[in-house]
Predict the 3D structure of the following.
Amino acid sequence: MHTIPSKPLRQHLPQLQLIRQLHTFAEKRGAQLYLVGGSVRDLLLNRPITDIDFALADDAIVFAKAFADEIGEAFVQLEEQPPTARIVIRETRLTLDFAGFRAETLEADLYLRDLTINAMALNLSSLLTKPEVDLINPCGGFSDLNARTLHFSSEGVVTDDPLRMLRVYRFAGQLRFEIPGATVNLIRRHRDLLPQVSPERIRDELTKILGLQNATIYLRRMDDTRLLSQIIPEIEKGREARQGALERRLRALEMFEAKPIPDTLQPYQPQIEAYLHEGLTHDLCRQQIVKLALLLRDSGAETALQATNRLRLGRKAAQLMRCLVENRLYLMDSTDGKGQITRRSMISFLRRAGADWLGILLISYANIRSSKKNPRRTDAPPLVEALLKQIVDFYYNEFAPIVERGRLITGDDILQTFGRISGVEIGRVLQHIEDLQLEGKIQTSKEALEAAQIFLRSNGIRTCPRQR
């Protein structure tokens, strides 16, 4: 047991006045609260804290409900066994989680936690009222914290919940901790248990790993233990060339993480970052799907969709995945021999790609950089950089303003001018007018109607102009 000065820890607690109010409330009820798990770890590491975990011997649900009522905040029951509940402080979004002991004593409870660095506790009363507090540390987590290494609390915690193997890589990335050989050996021994875990829980951990700035490092390590193929079996397709193919995909992902925005597009950095970080669901943004698409880039759209659906990533993520994988080679396939692209080709691309045209450019750019003969180079040919800028300039300076301004004429304008025409033909006319508008050939409603008349005549569409 280690004795630690209390004052620095208290100063790092969020909403200290609220925590003191909680302590007073617990004393009146005769309950002893302990800070446990990630809260203790982050206090000792001086990391930001947005949620605090408490353990107690009493009924955690009854206790949390009573305190939530006293302070007028939201209460959520999480589990019945062990009794677990949450209080959400609306103004600051701080969460307070309360769980009953999962064993007869606190120390026995700590042995059931995933990693030694998450198996420590602090007596809340001592932390708030005494100059020093004893760190309850039965699994040796304090030594591992100082050594910055990740050990399982026991082999049993892995077999009880195989998801903990995946959490190791997430914590390694978030904390910049090492994964020692003993931990790796346990993962190799039990990796086949991971498919027993629900897809939703695997999804949540995988997306957190993809959210790391350097996810490639940890995906490679997951592949070393063959844990990655337990999550995404699609990467095993084409077994003979698997290692080479996967390395090419990881190389592309590495290129994207090292430089997601090309130098020529730095003026558009705010728009690109807003696109990448736009949420698809509560915990998932486009950037994570772009990374996953790079990992699945050679699998084909249907196989990539199979992985997306199995991981329960949602409809928006599936649509984005299909779009990215189907168009991953766009920059290599869209230009002439001199690296040029026509205005009409850009218009066709932007229409077809819709909201995810930027994602296609970024994934295509990463693929080009990863395919260079010299694997140490991270740049791309100047023509590619120039091509990217040409397309993005065209979108923001010409295409988007025209689309936002709207059509020069409507279907009603066509009917009023040329009489009864079928809906299909009206659609063809409007598409043609929009093409001319985007190509910069017409700018006014009068020019649009004149162009519509020429189009109708050249396509043999009979009109019956109304008398004015």
Observations:
- Residues 373-378 have pLDDT under 50 and may be disordered.
- The beta strands are 2-5, 34-36, 51-56, 74-79, 84-88, 95-100, 121-123, 132-136, 279-281, 284-285.
